[in-house]
Amino acid sequence: MRVPARGYAVLLAGMLSNFSVGILYTWSNIRDALEGYAEWAVYQLTIPFSIGGLTFALLLIIAGMLQDRHGPRPVMIIGILMVGGGTILSGLATRTPTLFYVTFGVVVGAGLAFVYACPRPAAMKWFDPSRKGMINGLVVTGFGLGALWLAPTQIFMLHTLGYSLERTLVTLGCLILAIGLPCAAVIIDPPEGYVPPKPRRGVAKSVHPTARHAPSVALRTTLRTPQAWMLLAIYALFCSAGAMVIGSVGSILSTQTQAGFNGMYGPALIAILPLAVPVLSITNAIGRTAGGIGSDYLGRRFTYFVMHVVLLINMFLLQFWTAPTLILMGALVAAACYGAALAVTPSIVADFFGLKAYGANYGFVFYGWGISLLLGPQIGSSMLAATGSYIGAYYAAMALLLVSLLLVFLLRQPRFAPEHLIDGTPNANSPHQTAESEFDRFSLGREPE
Questions:
Q1: Span 210-250, pLDDT tens digits
Q2: Is 208-439 assigned to CATH 1.10.287.1770?
Q3: Which of 271, 275, 333, 344 is the 20 to 30 A CA-CA neighbour of 425?
């Protein structure tokens, strides 16, 4: 058997729909434009980004529940309309910060939740469980790459065409609708009774937990497990470091480069600044794909461990770099690790808690990501205001990473009694089941004993 063409269409449409709505990751460009508006105080320039991320995270659980109940297509269409419409409305509210908080922070943030909740669970249902990391990595790569077209388009409109920020945002909103709505119409779950075909090559023979079917439990059961809260905490602590760097990369480059624009690195700094956001977007996307695929083969916990060690070393070294090229390299490493977390974490949620209530279960864990958008940028801004540099922020981020690494060491597969399952599938990890359940034998093409 092969995966039907519709399964690949769902995967591709999921990537493109996420690709169309990545405007949150272009906040650095929008912030730079708003900085010249008299109506905006300096402290207000990070608020829409933080509200957008928090709204995104808070509403993902609701969007996930709706997706679980009504299917992905209607939820995604609503989400695309909110992201595109919210961007258009933001273009009409640039002179009123409070209204901009609502249009960009709340409306766009809510739309992102509705779009983000749907493609991954839909696509995972079309493919074998051994491909969970790959599917998650590819779909969220589309979200990370959104800034790759949105950021250069913003710069082109603002600086080459001479568009105002208002006209730029309205145009981008229309483009988001034009790309996202056709993709949303393609996203559907497989028909009732569909069984994903096994891969033909070596991974199909794997007995690694990431390659097994994961029986599903409801959100109320998930919330009773320490693993769900540990995953939320790991998400919050680990992603704070990446969010701090991604959200302030322009400021870090300008502040930390020796002598700034007037020094020997001035020309390099001027050349690098416009490229920082799109280059970080590419690296972020590569990290998502690599993290997802790597975790399928290496295991989620080991991949988590590698990510933590790499990011810890990188955050320590960042304080010593004063050349813009080296600073950018450090930012790229942070973006790659941050991206990997956004592929590995949803995959481990599917490993632990199954797919039937995946939208709600991952929506809860995703609160950790929303917390990171508040924690990381706030650490950076506070340390910069207090000391005039980001060195203190790097050490604070390292402390958070050490706590997160400890939680990774403590993380273990949860066990559920049969009465807690909601999809009628025996749990191979439950103490009430044998090592190879009847479902496993059936999936492998063998008759139950």
A1: 556 678 899 999 999 999 999 999 999 999 988 888 878 88
A2: no
A3: 344
